[in-house]
Structure formats: C-alpha cells, structure tokens
Amino acid sequence: xxxxxxxxxxxxxxxxxxxxxxxxxxxxxxxxxxxxxxxxxxxxxxxxxxxxxxxxxxxxxxxxxxxxxxxxxxxxxxxxxxxxxxxxxxxxxxxxxxxxxxxxxxxxxxxxxxxxxxxxxxxxxxxxxxxxxxxxxxxxxxxxxxxxxxxxxxxxxxxxxxxxxxxxxxxxxxxxxxxxxxxxxxxxxxxxxxxxxxxxxxxxxxxxxxxxxxxxxxxxxxxxxxxxxxxxxxxxxxxxxxxxxxxxxxxxxxxxxxxxxxxxxxxxxxxxxxxxxxxxxxxxxxxxxxxxxxxxxxxxxxxxxxxxxxxxxxxxxxxxxxxxxxxxxxxxxxxxxxxxxxxxxxxxxxxxxxxxxxxxxxxxxxxxxxxxxxxxxxxxxxxxxxxxxxxxxxxxxxxxxxxxxxxxxxxxxxxxxxxxxxxxxxxxxxxx
Length: 432
Ligand code: LLP
Description:
- By secondary structure, the protein is α/β, with parallel strands linked by helices.
- It contains twelve helices and 21 strands.
- The chain is about 30% helix and about 25% strand.
- Strands 4, 14, 15, 16, 17, 18, 19, 20 and 21 form a nine-stranded mixed β-sheet that branches. An eight-stranded parallel beta barrel has the order 5-6-7-8-9-11-12-13, surrounded by six helices.
- The structure holds ligand LLP.
C-alpha cells in the first residue's frame, strides 16, 4: 500500500513504522522528528552484504555510503552487519572512527580532500583512499612518506556514462568535477605516476555513475568500460589491479508509480558482466566493492511533522504548513524530489484532497511537495513524509536558526533516540 515495506496502518487507523505507532512517536519525542525502522536498515545492509557472497563468491565488500545518513549509531549498525563504510569528509570519517569502525573497511572519497583530512586518513590506516586528482595524489604520497606509512588508494575514474538521461549516453561526462577522465589520457597518466610512488599502494579503480538510477544497463556498461581500462593498463604497464569499486546509485521507490529493478537483478547482471569481461580480456577476477547509500536507508526512514496553518486560496491551491520544511528536508527545493505524504492520525481515511505541503522557513520555495494527495487535514494533525531516510538528515541545515530534529530508531515496535534534538543553546554555542 505504501512505497516502503516497513510502513503500515494499525487498528487505530494510525500510520506505523516498524510496528510502532507514529502518532505515539510524535507525542513522545515531539515534531519534527526523523524516524527509522532499524530492522529495515539491517535487512538492506544484510542483503547487500550477502549478495557479495552470492554473486562474487565472497570476493567483495558492500560499503555503505554514509553521506546518505551518518551518525554514530548508523556506523555501529554497519559494523555489526559486517559492511564497510564510505566517508566523504573528515566529519564522516571522525564519526565512523569514533565508534571503533575498522579503518581497513573505510573508503574515503571526495574531490578536494584537505591536507588534514588526508593526514587523518593515513594516520588512522583508512583502507582505501579514493584519489580524485594528481594534486591529491602528490599530497597523499608526501603525507604517507612523512608518516612512514603506505596509503592504500584507488583512483576515481569518469567512465563517460551519463545515467541520468532517459536513454543513458556514453559520452559527455568529461565535464564533471569528480575524478580522472579517460578521453584525455589523464587516468592512464595518474596510474603510471602512482606506480612510481613507493608510499602509495594502488589497489584498483573506482567509478560512480550517479544516484537514483533505475536501469541496470548503465551499471553494466560502466563495469565494461572499467575492465577495458584494466586491460589497457595491464597491456601498457604490466600492472594488474586487485580490486574494482563500482560505486552506488541504485534507485529506490519514492512514489507508487516507480519501478526500480530489484537489487538481486542488478547484482546478478553486473557480476555476470564482470566475470565474462575478465575472462574475455584475460584478467584475474578482482575483489569487487559496491557503495549503496540511498538504497540502504531511504525507504527505512520517514519524517513526522505537526500541521499548523491550513491556508485555502480559492481556485489556486491549499497550503498545509508544517513545523519543519527545507531545513530538515531540502530535497524538494533542490531537486523537485517526489515524496508520498500521509496524515499519520488519519491514515485509514482516503487521501481525497490535493494540497501543497509548505515548510516554516522564510522562503517561498520552502515546500515539501506540491499538488500531492492527502487526507483532509486540520491544525494539530500529524503528517508523515515517507522515504526520507536518505539525504534528509544528512543535508539538514539550521536555516532560520531552526534546530535540527532528533533521529529516533524503532525496532520491533520499541523506539529510542539515536540523535538528540538540537537545542537553541546548541545552535548558539559557537557564537562569540
Ligand atoms: N559512492 C559515491 C562515490 C557517491 O558519490 C555516492 C553518492 C554514493 C556512493 C551513494 O549513492 P546512492 O547509492 O546513495 O545513490 N543529495 C542527493 C544525492 C547525492 C548523491 C551523491 N553521491 C539526493 O538527495 O538525491
């Protein structure tokens, strides 16, 4: 009935997540509040982890892209489920390390990592630093030499695939701030250079072709492009990589009408391409990494709000204003992102109205959804926006000095806070 499996309706007609009544959660923790179903997150992580065993014979690692949702408890959950973690900043790295996440299972991304971030990565023995450009390679090699360490690295490659057009295309991606281009020869140049550096160990190459991708073909093509490059590098330098990182980007369902391909199908098809291509090109089968973010947490989370003013503008539209908005979910303002919206305390009623859900920020564009179907609501009702688990908490801001909402996790109907609500004291703490 809903886009996410962990959402249902109970006997009181209230929306539930992970078996817990969302109206009760709103009462207990206040609104706005992010709520996650822990079992759903664990189920998704386990599915990715196990698929590496099933399709790559255990010769691989699923690495959770923590930019989708990062906090200490999420890092602990990944650790318990045996996945790796992808971090993209000193802050995400710090969070993972602070709960004792094994550094050799951390992948560090970013197109402009600072000296301090690179130093922290080397110092802590991060397993794979994904180097984005020659400047970074040189800095990293210097840092590793100074610290007497060897830095495990991968290069981020632009495989030249634009998966965001309807019919994905295999050109035109040279214009990206991320990674090394194939066309210009800079990827090959970087590889040659790294092979002369005693303080870095080049483990393999990485690509990430985009996010919220529904088709499997672009992923298959990316794997082919990468392995062709592996072959070219082997032929030209004699060096054969041990690893291949194929990135993340698997799409999830935000609306009932959307039909992403099942992950198992992705794994089956892409692993078949990797195997076949390696055989054909005479390459050894690499250790394969994947980096799912959205698909781990997106559908496992919702955001609860309280309805304030309901403003009906005759013949124009009805604005339903909530006590959150673009500060806790900037995705509609940024990307026109789709969401399913439900009145949590009237979930069993028909969604008979067409409304615009507006936030409380001082900005006309602060909308959560336009022309969406919703039950007839009144002030005090609880609104649930579904599938907000990915890139909502992580992209939240203090715009208008609004404190960030807390994160609550539900497991088998029992809830607990994993990130506390910010206070006014907290957001003024650094003011002098
Ligand atoms: N690996 C790399 C190198 C990435 O850059 C990303 C996402 C991922 C993995 C995870 O991709 P996912 O599986 O989550 O699609 N803020 C945007 C999404 C930005 C994605 C950035 N990179 C949004 O809210 O839709």
